[in-house]
Amino acid sequence: MKNSEILELSTEELVARISEERANLTKLKFAHAVSAIENPSRITKVRKDIARLTTEITKRKSASASE
Question: If you placed Cys at 13, which of 8, 9, 26, 65 could pair as Cys (CB 3.0 to 4.6 Å)?
Answer without folding.
Answer: 9
